[in-house]
Write a structure and sequence with these properties.
The complex is a heterodimer of chains A (about 450) and B (about 375). Chain A is of the alpha/beta class. Chain A has two domains: about 150 residues, D-Maltodextrin-Binding Protein, domain 2 (3-Layer(aba) Sandwich), CATH 3.40.190.10; about 230 residues, Periplasmic binding protein-like II (D-Maltodextrin-Binding Protein, domain 2). Helices cover about 50% and strands about 15% of the residues of chain A. Chain A is built from 20 helices and twelve strands. Chain A has a five-stranded mixed sheet. Chain A has a four-stranded mixed sheet with strand order 7-8-6-9. In chain A, about 45% of the residues are buried. Chain B has about 375 residues and is mainly α. Chain B has two domains: about 210 residues, MetI-like fold (Orthogonal Bundle); about 80 residues. The relative contact order of chain B is 0.13. Classes of the chains: A alpha/beta (about 450), B mainly alpha (about 375).
């Protein structure tokens, strides 16, 4: 009798657990309420965060049947979370991702769907054709819809500071180097970068330096073993980084500078130049909730200039700037085709890429959209200047973490830091990157 | 009698089985699975029903042993173990003894103060010390302000020695030589200091002597920053210091609590018999605390090997991986760049093996000491 009671109790507990487990499935199938998990990339300390939250809230309000669970992460924390999601085989339903490079694992394993059939030709016709070029996506199909074209090297210049010291905006590296004593005498650093995270030097400056010396095709050749990183032209590019540290153009202190610290230091006049990607413009914009900004719109107009990195000695591709197709959102392959969840995910995508939201992102200074029907009406001067910067850029080259395999660019990132520390010579650094490349080629 | 034995066995099983089941699922199974994965080519996703994976052998271990970053991370872990076992424990013991024997006044106050770092979030501690050591942080600024004040006087003295009758600065080779001599090292960073300083003084220096002094001070004054912390061999020092600062208080409390359990009459009678403080410590307190010392040593070793948060917040394992420890090295292999789960599992297995070896050594040392006693 006692045993029967125990078995009955066990069955009751089991049935309760099972019914809870199936509850979500029933909810989804009946089409009543769908839960969408979204991984967004956003630095929550940036001025536009309140408006960003409003964008998602508006979608929730308009779609009470879709329960939106969003997660905002940025920088390394974002990439590490994505890796953890991939490891667990449990990707979010809609997620922010890169066209290749750092999201390569998603592309290679086809963990997201092809957006072309889902979004439809009519919707996609609103975007510039470059954004729809599937050859530039690691998966070979439209895994994510690029929101922008991303320029990873922008020299944010304190024009006001230079003028007050009787200096002019430099056009060559020699002119930049000649400024160092004057700036130093006034307690000002020349070029500021946040080099504590090792990707910054590679992505925001070295990609452009390498592009200026070896161009773009060279990197296609290196992957086929036709040229080597140890060849003099690439070593010359690495040597340029060493020269910048040796000349005091970039201070070795920057290797201790965290990514979030640099914009504030630049805005407070601690450096004449700040090198980072175009996305960093948003750090200088006005926070609409508090009305505060690191650089006021008036100062942006008068004191700020966005310039390409000055001409390097002996460069072969003048004016080249590293750029890549921007990031965007993709939809998880795990969602059943034709399910209510897929319909909800597509609805969310169309909302995020609508001209209204893209217009808002342009005004927030997040990026210049690939969507054609947006216009820069109410933007702050820095955004207008950024658009001017894009227009004046003569040619573009690869951002190396988009062009190389992660097993190669992680080594490159590290050796660039070692060059800065003086613990490796450019030749030794090149040999180490080539070793990683040889290993990669052997595995193909 | 038989019934009692049966009942005891039943009770034993009832108590042990739940913990055993939890242990198997939470500890034993993951360790075994981790070992299996370390021998495989598993590339993420669903373990069953996902893409196929198979056992490929010991290649991840051979990669590890040939990777200099593994040995560097292991060495950093050994530093941490050493500072913990031979730093935190003796320091905690000494401080606890001083408080227990009332050698210092205000024992409770010191006890509280020393314990505070243990209750602050390790991430907060990491960020705080990182800001303190930052090239733009308070320590750099204070030291540079002191440097600048002293340096300004030297520059002013040199400039005053090169004024003409009207009080105007005479820019000639003698002035430049004197300026370079103030700090030849800083001057050498200007490339060709003579030509740079000559051009600078001719173009930038105004008639205002004070302003010229300020500019030259900025240019030539040695700027202090904690950049030496970027160097291999030195970079671990702040981390070791913060580890010591952070956890010594915890061991102090552990030792103090156990000292307070010692019968005071034993100590009183020892004192009456004329025992010195050192004799009391050696023959009464240390033997009484041998159990807690061993447990603390095991805690220290386990904590040092699994430490992640403090170093991640302070340096992130950088620059150029020189402050990486095994846990950060494992994290990097699993979650950054190309995820390599088998290799990460191999690293975690090595951490387990290393812990077992160290704990084995600790146990052997204790056995030896107890044998002597």
């Amino acid at each position: 009798m006692k045993n029967i009671k125990r078995i009955l109790l066990l069955l009751a507990v089991l049935s309760l657990v099972l019914s809870m487990g199936f509850a979500e499935g029933i909810e989804e199938n009946s089409g009543e309420k769908v839960t969408l998990k979204v991984l967004n990339y956003y630095d929550t300390t940036e001025p536009g965060y309140e408006k960003e939250r409003q964008v998602w809230q508006n979608f929730r309000d308009e779609n009470p049947n879709i329960d939106l669970v969003t997660e905002d992460l940025c920088n390394e924390a974002f990439h590490q979370k994505v890796s953890a999601y991939i490891a667990s085989g449990n990707l979010p339903d809609v997620m922010y991702m890169y066209p290749s490079g750092r999201s390569m694992a998603i592309h290679e394993n086809k963990l997201v769907k092809d957006l072309k059939p889902l979004l439809g030709e009519e919707f996609l016709s609103n975007f510039v054709s470059t954004a729809l070029n599937t050859k530039t996506q690691g998966s070979g199909y439209l895994a994510e819809l690029p929101q922008s074209i991303c320029y990873t090297t922008v020299v944010y210049t304190n024009k006001g500071l230079l003028t007050s010291l009787g200096l002019k905006i430099p056009t060559t590296y020699e002119e930049l180097k000649a400024m160092v004593p004057t700036l130093k005498a006034n307690g000002i650093q020349t070029v500021l970068m946040a080099n504590k995270d090792d990707w910054v030097m590679q992505s925001c400056l070295f990609s452009t330096i390498a592009g200026r010396y070896v161009g773009t095709k060279w990197f296609d050749d290196v992957k086929m073993g036709k040229v080597k990183f140890t060849d003099p032209e690439f070593v010359q590019a690495l040597n340029m980084v060493k020269t910048m540290y040796d000349d005091g153009v970039i201070s070795r202190n920057t290797i201790q500078l965290a990514y979030g610290e640099a914009p504030g230091l630049f805005a407070s006049g601690k450096a004449a130049f700040f090198v980072d990607g175009d996305w960093k413009e948003s750090a200088f914009l006005t926070n609409h909730t508090t009305g505060e900004s690191l650089i006021s719109p008036a100062k942006q107009e008068t004191d700020l200039a966005l310039i390409p990195f000055p001409a390097l000695p002996g460069e072969n591709y003048p004016g080249t700037v590293s750029s890549t197709l921007g990031c965007g959102f993709g939809i998880s392959s795990a969602i059943t085709a034709g399910s209510a969840k897929e319909i909800a995910a597509v609805k969310l995508m169309k909302y995020l890429y609508s001209s209204e939201i893209q217009q808002q992102y342009l005004e927030l200074g997040r990026y210049v959209p690939t969507r054609k029907d947006v216009s820069a009406k109410k933007v702050e001067p820095i955004v207008k200047k950024m658009m001017g910067y894009y227009a004046q850029s003569e040619s573009t080259c690869y951002v190396l973490d988009s062009a190389l395999d992660p097993s190669v660019y992680t080594v490159l990132n590290k050796v660039l830091q070692e060059i800065g520390l003086g613990s490796k010579t450019p030749k030794e650094a090149a040999a180490e990157v080539q070793k990683a490349m040889d290993k990669y080629i052997a595995m193909q | 009698m038989l019934n009692k034995e049966k009942e005891e066995k039943k009770a034993y099983r009832r108590f042990v089985i739940p913990s055993l089941v939890i242990f198997i699922f939470v500890m034993a199974f993951p360790i075994i699975l981790s070992f299996i994965l370390s021998l495989s080519n598993f590339s993420g996703g669903k373990m069953f029903g996902g893409s196929r994976w198979k056992i490929t052998g010991l290649q991840n271990y051979s990669y590890l042993f040939s990777d200099s970053y593994f040995w560097n991370a292991l060495l950093n872990n050994i530093y941490l173990v050493l500072i913990s076992v031979f730093g935190q424990l003796p320091l905690g013991m000494i401080l606890a003894y001083l408080i227990y024997r009332k050698t210092v006044k205000g024992g409770e106050f010191w006890q509280g103060i020393l314990y505070v770092p243990s209750v602050i979030s390790v991430i907060v501690i990491g960020i705080m010390w990182n800001l303190i050591f930052s090239p733009y942080g308070p320590v750099s600024q204070i030291i540079n302000n002191i440097n600048t004040t002293a340096f300004t006087k030297e520059v002013m003295a040199v400039l005053n020695g090169h004024l003409d009758f009207n009080g105007a600065l005479v820019v000639n080779s003698s002035l430049i030589k004197d300026l370079v001599n103030i700090n030849a090292q800083a001057a050498s960073l200007l490339g060709d200091p003579v030509s740079v300083l000559t051009t600078f003084l001719k173009t930038s220096a105004t008639g205002d002597l004070e302003e010229t002094t300020r500019l030259l001070t900025n240019l030539l004054c040695p700027k202090w920053s904690a950049s030496f912390l970027n160097e291999k061999g030195v970079a671990m020092l702040p981390i070791l210091f913060v580890t010591l600062w952070c956890w010594t208080g915890m061991y102090l409390i552990l030792f103090l609590a156990n000292m307070q359990k010692i019968d005071p009459q034993t100590l009183d009678s020892a004192q009456i018999d004329g025992a010195k403080e050192s004799t009391i410590l050696r023959h009464i307190i240390l033997p009484e605390l041998s159990g807690v010392i061993l447990n603390s040593a095991i805690l220290c070793i386990a904590g040092s090997l699994s430490t992640f948060d403090l170093i991640y917040a302070m340096t992130g394992g950088g620059p150029a991986r020189i402050t990486q420890v095994l846990s950060i090295y494992m994290y990097e292999k699993a979650f950054t760049g190309t995820p390599n789960y088998p290799l990460s599992n191999a690293i975690s297995i090595m951490m387990v093996v290393f812990s077992l070896v160290l704990i084995g050594i600790t146990k052997a040392v204790q056995k030896r000491l107890e044998g002597d006693r």
